[in-house]
Design brief:
The complex is a heterodimer of chains A (about 120) and B (about 170). Chain A is built from three helices and one strand. Chain A is mainly α and about 120 residues long. Classes of the chains: A mainly alpha (about 120), B mainly alpha (about 170).
């Protein structure tokens, strides 16, 4: 009985010593940084708290034409990535198309074709 | 009933624990203020705004902890190499007696647990600095510096320990 009590007390002492040794080292891990990286893919972000909604989110209310446009851009991007030689310098220049009239026409054509087929 | 060595180790670990813990907190706050880095203190801990600031702050904080560690190691190394009762010089003993500081001369049972605890912190800090450097959370030169200090301390510890054993073996003869 005396041996068991002695063993228990020494175990407690050992635990206290180890925790004292690990305390400053453990506290070194209590430091973080905010990850404010922008979302590159519309599909890979699904945090419920975020204001940025995924395309797959049923509550996102993304208009169909916008969704199709994003999907097409992503598809083109990944196709270009696959064909591109392994260099870190981008060779193609991204052109911003705010009006996106051409894309809208294509989407409308697809829609009308779908309706006609039905 | 209680292990004397464990009680002594806990006793000797109190000061370095408090010193290193406060060094970490104070260094982060001071470095953030000096470098103009915005930090938030929340339930998650200390949060910086981006990874570059994190690496900078973390590295300089480790450096400050290393400075505290070096102070502690120098103190125990002087006690071990110069003021060790097994090989303290008579002139030093006389001087310490004259200034009524004979308590500075200590035995192996007092010095080695203390030196052991500081050495343990030194190893732990170099291990953590290494992991952080490899995970790109701290600069590599900080890790090299901590490792260098750890190696020097280990060599001095072994040197003093061997010296002590040699003296005790000669005394037995």
């Amino acid at each position: 009985m005396k041996k068991i009590i002695s063993f228990g007390l020494n175990s407690v002492l050992l635990a206290i010593f180890v925790s004292m040794i690990l305390l400053p080292i453990g506290f070194m891990g209590k430091m973080k940084y905010e990850n404010d990286s922008s979302v590159l893919s519309a599909q890979d972000y699904s945090d419920e708290k975020s204001s940025i909604k995924s395309l797959d989110d049923p509550d996102s209310n993304i208009p169909e034409d916008v969704e199709q446009f994003i999907m097409r851009m992503e598809r083109e991007y990944y196709q270009n990535q696959g064909n591109k030689p392994s260099t870190s310098v981008p060779t193609d220049v991204f052109k911003e198309d705010i009006e996106r009239e051409e894309e809208m026409e294509i989407i409308n054509d697809i829609k009308t074709n779908d309706i006609e087929n039905q | 009933m209680l292990s004397k060595i464990l009680v002594k180790l806990i006793d000797k670990a109190i000061v370095p624990t408090i010193l290193l813990l406060s060094a970490r907190v104070v260094s982060i706050v001071l470095a953030a203020k000096y470098m103009g880095i915005n930090i938030k203190i929340s339930s998650e801990g200390i949060v910086t705004q981006n990874s570059a600031e994190y690496v900078k702050l973390n590295s300089y904080s480790i450096l400050f902890m290393l400075a505290m560690l070096i102070i502690g190691l120098i103190y125990v190394a002087i006690k071990g190499l110069v003021l060790h009762d097994s090989h303290v010089k008579p002139t030093i003993t006389a001087k310490l007696f004259s200034i009524k500081a004979k308590s500075l001369i200590q035995s192996s049972s007092e010095i080695y647990p203390q030196w052991g605890v500081w050495s343990l912190y030194s190893f732990m800090l170099s291990a953590v600095a290494g992991i952080m450097a490899m995970s790109k959370l701290a600069y590599f030169w900080v890790f090299y510096l901590v490792t260098f200090v750890t190696l020097i301390n280990t060599v001095l510890f072994i040197y003093d320990f061997e010296d002590d054993i040699k003296i005790k073996m000669e005394d037995k003869k």
